[in-house]
Design a protein that fits this description.
The complex is a heterodimer of chains A (417) and B (91). Chain A is 28% helix and 24% strand. An eight-stranded mixed β-sheet of chain A has the order 6-7-5-15-16-17-14-18. The two termini of chain A are 43 Å apart. Chain B is mainly beta and 91 residues long. In chain B, strands 3-4-5-6 form a four-stranded antiparallel β-sheet, with no helix packed on it. A two-stranded antiparallel sheet of chain B has the order 1-2. Chain B is globular, with a radius of gyration of 15 Å. Classes of the chains: A alpha/beta (417), B mainly beta (91). Chains A and B meet through helix 8 and helix 11 of A and strand 3, helix 1 and strand 4 of B.
């Protein structure tokens, strides 16, 4: 039984110099057999395990992770959470996640520092204005809060933005989703891991999957660096490495894995209290609670698993940021890193059964998976437990690439993918 | 970031080039006879290999010609570059 985190536990542990905190999760050796195994110990995988145990009463399950939990894209993203997507299917999916975010810290008794500071998307040309207005209307029809802002209103909401009409890509307007915001990414992985562990889920780190064993069209188990694990259900949530795991099972996926970069500046006093995203010039920026500017750059156009991106991508993003925020011109950047994102042709995820019985994939989140973490886990758990998709993720099946019923969020998703 | 030797222009920065994805995907000879599965395979399904991959590149900010490349996607090292229509050197 886990001790509850509260102000009292904090005070109590202060007396022992914070040296006697209970372990948040065990370090078990893998059992011979599980009812289900989740491959990938990121936010999505751990959330899947959490909801499998919590809602579907599957307690004899494991999460296997190649490195350490939350060490992949969960720890590499820019933590932006929003649900202002254009199409009905996406709106349903991402707003389901946003609603879960709103109660998540209480639900898992772990402060994920969810901060609804709003996300503003800027328009820089006439087409942007039309697209953003269309998306605002679509959002409101789907019950998602969205407002369209004029240039003056943009300036009022975020005064440091340069709204001069003489710059190369002037701000012509924008949209605002006030319920959107940020959360602390590590806490999401750790909180779900702690919650899942308490319900009996084995979280097995440093355990790389080397093969997926099948007999005919059924899954039999997985080969790992820590031995063979027998299981009838395998859920793969491996982000950039999804294709690698699909190849092990003899499947092909419509994915391309590319480096996506982000960077943070030195910490400064509070200067920007919201998240501003700009599709046309590809610049987005927010400020972490530590005071660092968190800046997201774009993806490289070539396939790579190297977790390194090109410098010209960073340069392009910083050029745009400097034009929009001249106040940042003397900021120094502290760290820069890359993560490998799995991009779908329609920039929408896949949460789906496959042609192999007992093998499920949750992938293709591309550049925007973090925001969906709780919803993705909840819906993937439903899909695995019932061998049927939930109505919210039915549209995000693998079969859509055969039927042609794509969920095209490329240009429509408020930011470039 | 890495350097690419364009078979027409020589060594240039990667930022001059545009990646064209997996190479040697053949356009269907009889499109009208293709099933939906085969269309999906041709249009969307990719090997997306971690390791040695055959791919197409375009010298977009140079000679604008297309060519093929063999590259290790796990560390971005280039193994070989060859022109369109040529057989890949070894492997």
């Amino acid at each position: 039984m886990k001790n509850k985190y509260s102000i009292f536990s904090l005070i109590k542990n202060a007396f022992s110099y914070h040296e006697n905190w209970q372990k948040a999760w065990k370090d078990p050796t893998p059992k011979k057999e599980y009812d289900a195994v989740i491959i990938g110990g990121g936010g999505h995988g751990l959330a899947t395990a959490y909801y499998l145990a919590k809602k579907h009463n599957m307690k004899n399950i494991a999460v296997v992770e190649k490195g350490w939990i939350g060490g992949g894209n969960t720890g590499r993203n820019t933590t932006i959470i929003r649900s202002n997507y254009l199409w009905d299917a996406s709106a349903g999916l991402y707003d389901h996640a946003l609603k879960l975010w709103e109660g998540l810290s209480q639900e898992i008794n772990y402060n994920v520092m969810f901060s609804q500071r709003g996300v503003m998307n800027l328009a820089h040309n006439l087409q942007d204005v039309r697209d953003l207005k269309r998306r605002t209307h679509a959002n409101r029809l789907n019950g998602i809060d969205a407002v369209y802002l004029s240039t003056e209103e943009v300036k009022k909401f975020c005064p440091i933005i340069n709204t001069s009409q003489d710059i190369r890509y002037p701000v012509l307007g924008g949209t605002l989703q006030r319920r959107a915001g940020t959360a602390r990414h590590d806490a999401v992985a750790w909180g779900y891991a702690r919650g899942a562990d308490e319900m009996g889920v084995d979280i097995i780190q440093n355990c790389e999957v080397k093969g997926i064993k099948r007999s005919g069209d059924e899954v039999e188990g997985i080969e790992t660096t820590r031995g063979f694990i027998k299981t009838k259900k395998v859920g793969v949530v491996a982000a950039g490495h999804s294709s690698v795991l699909a190849n092990m099972a003899g499947l092909r996926l419509p994915l391309e894995s590319k480096p996506l970069q982000a960077l943070v500046s030195e910490p400064v006093k509070p200067i920007i209290d919201t998240v501003v995203m700009s599709n046309a010039v590809h610049a987005y920026v927010s400020q972490s609670d530590k005071g660092e500017l968190v800046i997201g750059a774009g993806t490289d156009d070539y396939i790579s698993y190297s977790q390194k991106g090109s410098h010209d991508i960073v340069e392009g993003t910083l050029n745009a940021i400097l034009e929009l925020y001249p106040i940042f011109s003397r900021m120094r950047m502290l760290r820069q890193w890359g993560g490998i994102v799995d991009i779908c042709p329609d920039a929408s995820p896949i949460i789906s059964k496959t042609t192999i019985k007992g093998l499920y994939f949750n992938c293709g989140w591309g550049t925007g998976g973090f925001k969906a973490t709780p919803g993705s886990g909840d819906l993937f758990a439903h899909t695995i437990a019932n061998d049927e998709p939930h109505k919210l993720n039915a549209a995000f099946n693998l079969n859509r690439f055969i039927s042609g019923d794509l969920v095209d969020e490329h240009g429509a998703a408020a930011v470039a993918h | 970031m890495f350097l690419i030797t364009c078979p027409f222009c020589g060594e240039r920065e990667q930022s001059e080039f545009k990646a064209g994805g997996e190479a040697h995907i053949e356009r269907p000879k009889q499109p009208i006879e293709l099933s939906d599965d085969e269309w999906a395979e041709y249009l969307f399904m990719r090997k997306n290999i971690k390791g040695i991959q055959f791919e197409r590149w375009n010298h977009a900010h140079g000679c604008r010609k297309w060519f093929n490349m063999i590259r290790d996607t796990s560390n971005d090292t280039i193994k070989a570059v060859y022109k369109m229509g040529e057989k890949p050197p070894v492997k």
